[in-house]
Design a protein that fits this description.
Layout lengths: L1 H34 L8 H22 L7 H5 L6 H33 L10 H4 L2 H25 L5
Helix pairs in contact: 1-2, 2-6, 4-6
Length: 162
């Protein structure tokens, strides 16, 4: 149970730190190799690009978890204070539907690319794994949105904390 609680609280943060750290090391190594050693690494830019894609989708989930994702706050303030929680829940439900559409399409695209056997040019990773970034990221987004909606409903019922 402690591991599940720890992952619930820190999964995105851990993944973002690992990906950002690895990207920094790889890009720094490429700069060193290119300008100091005069020999370029053939794989560094490609893997850094793919890490950045994964970082972006995991970052979306982290933004939802910390309630820092892009939203229109000005529109929220147009509603009376008593209805804002309902509007927030409604907005999160719309976002959850969007996340579901992204997951559905990502499954189809990833499966199609995996079935074709396409591989990345420099490192030979199956491209289907790269295309799974939106799938993984938006599954996490969906989980975080469900958690947020659940907490907001508890608050409305008087059983939760803000």
């Amino acid at each position: 149970m402690k591991i599940a609680k720890y992952l619930n609280e820190n999964l995105e943060r851990i993944l973002v730190i690992i990906l950002l750290g690895a990207m920094s090391i790889i890009i720094g190594s490429q700069v060193f190799m290119r300008y100091i050693m005069r020999a370029s690494l053939s794989w560094s830019e490609e893997i850094a690009r793919y890490m950045f894609v994964w970082l972006t989708y995991i970052g979306i989930s982290y933004g939802v978890k910390t309630n820092r994702h892009i939203k229109v706050d000005a529109a929220m303030f147009a509603f009376p204070i008593k209805t804002r929680k309902y509007v927030k829940i409604f907005g999160n439900l719309i976002f959850l539907i969007f996340a579901g559409i992204i997951v559905w399409n990502s499954v189809n695209v990833s499966a199609r690319i995996l079935s074709l056997g396409q591989k990345s040019p420099a490192i030979g990773i199956p491209m289907g794994f790269i295309y799974m970034a939106p799938l993984f990221g938006f599954i996490l987004v969906g989980i975080r949105l469900i958690q947020s909606i659940y907490n907001d409903i508890l608050i409305l019922k008087g059983g939760g904390s803000e």
